[in-house]
Amino acid sequence: MPTRRLALTSASARRGRSGGFTLVELLVVLVILGVLIGLAVIGTGATGPARELHDEAERLAGLIGVLAEEAVLDNREYGVHLSAGAYQVLQYDPASRRWQALQRQPHQLPPWAELSVELEGEALRLPQPTGESAGKAGLTPQLLILSSGELSPFRLQLRERRRDGMHLWLSSDGFQLPRVELGGVKGRSG
Asked: Does the model's pTM come out above 0.85?
């Protein structure tokens, strides 16, 4: 009997050692995967201007969507004041009969990006950002977001300033929220 017990314990000991991976082996595999993923992200240019431009377009589309929901829920009128390199959210104050900025400073686009917009098929000439503060009077929105759920019909282009750069479109027919669409890439933007 003692030989049989010895055979069982040595067989189970061998099975226990070869049955899985050690913590060190798993950590080495995770480090290798992390390095490979990092190289792939850098190699594809996912952190370059094209990715940042897409993020800016998604941020603006999301902001318009949130404002449309808040306008209906709060029964308030909102607007977006656009310039070539920035945008700012405004809220209509019925007591003073003026548009007031919700943030102190407009959201600045990266220096290599710019906005252009068409309302009712007409291209608007957007002012260059001047850093005007929220306290200054005279801010008027180009895009309206009404408490009825309607938006100004618009077609907005967000693009790289360089001639062969990427450009994205956001557009709305006045009833649907804008979606980001690829406008075309004439050159490499990463």
From this structure: no
